[in-house]
Specification:
By secondary structure, the protein is of the alpha/beta class. Helices cover about 45% and strands about 20% of the residues. The protein folds into 2 domains: about 5-135 and about 310-325, Glycogen Phosphorylase B (Rossmann fold, 3-Layer(aba) Sandwich), CATH 3.40.50; about 150-305, Rossmann fold (3-Layer(aba) Sandwich), CATH 3.40.50. The protein contains 13 helices and 14 strands. The protein has a 6-stranded parallel beta sheet with strand order 2-1-4-5-6-7, with helices on both faces. A 6-stranded parallel beta sheet has the order 10-9-8-11-12-13, with helices on both faces. A two-stranded antiparallel ribbon has the order 3-14. The longest helix has 16 residues, at about 290-305. InterPro entries: Glyco_trans_1.
């Protein structure tokens, strides 16, 4: 039996859409992706009406097949969808009104899938719902080649949650300390132009920083191939696919403590969002050869161990969908 995954058309690359694409490919033709046009996650009445019609069409037949709905769509609805629906949560709502919608839609769903145990635990605490966990897989990458100066990378959409402004302050602090043996690349689409301008202004004077915008798959591969350390200072993170991708290239990461990125972290550090704390550890990493070598060795060991595969992700999601098939 084949199933349908309905996802938003964001007009850009996102972690959630990349997950959906890899999931569909690993499912061997059993999960078909369909795009729902609309201004998600703030849909119009017409957007909602078209989605309900699309879901009903996908559920029709002798066996009412459950539809897999990207949570960015499914949890932005004013009232829940009907029929068998499995909600795929790439992230969780922030703010009271969004959380109320999310609660209604998740509680009405036949099943819920999250991309991390961290997110599943949060769903359980918030809504008393048991979610199935389908962590992202990854692909083996060539081992990154250390550069000189050290190459720091930050991958993610330029927006408040990804917190590049915080990182800009950290890098400026390194400059004030005369710790300048590094270069840094910011890569990702601009989703908030005002925020992106603020980041650009905060980076002024840092000649070793490059903002390259959204990259295609080949360019991302090349970025990992020549990186020494990934920086992900997100305010909220359900999992952190880029952390796992970096690990597949034996690249350690610094991430925000208390977020789902810690679950993806193998080699690296989880830090509170404090500029001095990040600057301290980065300065140590840059200047202490033993600390840097230890992290690099741990990253290589983790890469050589079992690499999570997208086939495992697909098997988990398909099992959830098959468990919700309703025979007429």
């Amino acid at each position: 039996m084949t199933f349908t995954l309905i996802e938003p058309d964001l007009g850009r690359i996102s972690g959630g859409l990349r997950y959906n694409s890899e999931l569909s490919a690993a499912a061997g033709g059993r999960i078909e992706r369909i795009t729902a046009p609309g201004s998600w996650p703030e849909p119009t009445e017409d957007d909602v009406a078209r989605l309900r019609q699309l879901v009903a069409q996908c559920q029709s037949g002798e066996s009412q097949r459950p539809v897999l709905i990207d949570g960015l769509i499914g949890c932005s609805l004013p009232t829940p969808l009907s029929g068998p629906v499995v909600m795929l949560q790439h992230s969780l709502a922030q703010g009271p009104s969004a959380q109320r919608r999310e609660a209604d839609c998740l509680q009405a769903a036949s099943a819920v899938v999250t991309t991390s145990a961290f997110a599943a635990a949060k769903v359980a605490r918030r809504y008393d719902i048991t979610a199935e966990v389908a962590r992202p897989g990854t692909h083996v990458r060539p081992v990154a080649q250390p550069g000189s100066p050290a190459h720091l990378i930050c991958l993610g959409a330029l927006e408040d949650n990804k917190n590049q402004l915080f990182l800009a302050h950290v890098l400026q602090e390194l400059r004030r300390r005369d710790a300048t043996a590094w270069r840094c690349t910011f890569a990702g689409p601009i989703t908030d132009t005002v925020y992106a301008e603020g980041v650009r202004e905060a980076l002024e004077g840092l000649t070793s920083v490059e903002c390259v915008g959204e990259l295609d798959e080949d360019a991302v591969d090349d970025l990992y191939r020549h990186a020494d350390l990934l920086l992900l200072p997100s305010k909220e993170e359900t999992f952190g696919m880029v952390v796992r991708e970096a690990a597949a290239a034996a690249i350690p990461s610094f991430v925000t403590a208390g977020t789902g990125a810690q679950e993806a972290l193998g080699a690296g550090r989880a830090l509170a969002l404090d500029v001095s704390a990040w600057a301290d550890l980065l300065e140590r990493w840059l200047s202490d050869e033993a600390d840097r070598a230890e992290l690099a060795a741990t990253a290589r060991e983790i890469r050589e161990s079992a690499v999570p595969e997208w086939n495992d992700t697909a098997r988990t999601v398909l099992a959830v969908l098959e468990g919700q098939v309703r025979v007429s």
